Amino acid sequence: MLKRSLSLRKYFLFAALVGLVSQYQNCSKVNFGALDSSVVPQSVRTFKPALATANSDCILCHGKIEGNLITTQHSGKLQGTWGTLDMYSSIAGQEDNRSWFRAHVGIEMTPEEQKMLANSGSGVSATYLTSHIKGSVYVPQILLPYVEQGKVSASLQFLKNKNILRSSTPASVSSVAEYLDAILNGRSDYYRNLLAKNIYTGEVNDFKDVLTSVREVASVKVGAYSVDEIKSLLGSTSMKSYPASGALISQIQDLGGAFKNVEGQVLECDGDLVFNGPVALKNLIIKSNTGCRIYSTSTIFVEAPAGVSEREGIQFLGGSQANLQLISARAVVFGLGSCSAKIDYSPSAELGSVGRRYITRDKAEASDKDIPVVADFLALRSKGVTLQDAGDCKNLVEASRKVHFKHVLVSAPEFQNRYTGDYHGVVIAPFILGAIGDFKYSYDDVFENVDIVPLLKIEKVFAVKE
Question: Which residues contact 167 (CB under 8 A, 6 or more apart)?
Answer without folding.
Answer: 160
